[in-house]
What we know:
The chain is an alpha+beta fold. Helix content is 77%, strand content 7%. The protein is built from 6 helices and 4 strands; from the N terminus they run ααααβαβββα. A hairpin with a 2-residue loop joins strand 3 (211-215) and strand 4 (218-220). The radius of gyration is 43 Å and the shape is rod-shaped.
Amino acid sequence: MNFDWTTFALQLVNVLILLAILRRFLFRPVAAIIEKRRAETQATLDAAAAARAEAEQATTRARAEADASAAARHDLLLQAAAEAQTQRAMLIEKARAEAARIVEDGRAALAREGASAEQRTLAQVRELAIAVASRALSAQPDGPEGYAVRLGNALRRMEASERDALLRAGDLTLVSARELPEAVLGTVRHTLQIYGVTARVTTDPALIDGIELRSKNGALRNSLAHDLEALARAMHDVRTES
């Protein structure tokens, strides 16, 4: 068998020409398309990573703002509670001073009426003043939980007709001196659900401390302000009688 170098050379030239044509018209366009797709895919991945990073930053900012808002609200509640306790202590001290003044007024009046009458009347005035003050001050519950319990007890003691007249008259409102803790608010709402009613919730700093129910037909008083008003009236009656 003879090897034809001429034929081999021609075939080699044809192969080289074919490779050149494929390189020019096939390999380069395909490589360009692949590179373009790779660049587009990378751009999409970069955009997704940037969006995810921005979302994480927004979530972090929102969480920080929520924490700051909760902390500020907690501080305001603590400040309001401290102010209410201070005001309550001042009013109680004022009530005690008023009771002492009534006793002193009674003592001065008795001095003009004679020693014997003085002792008897002074003892009566002192006993009445102490009894009224002690009753009003000892009736104060310990914090919002105590007022919630006292409110529930007051509703149970009411006559059914009187209770229905209050609870079903319309515009039933639960009023507290300051914003109630969720646990206390839940207790009061449970008490009202027993009687098949609900109430909107609001605050009135004038109560000083306590929880009251109000409707178009009246109010169930249950606050330090109301107790102090009753104390002042009782002391005024005692002073008038003396």
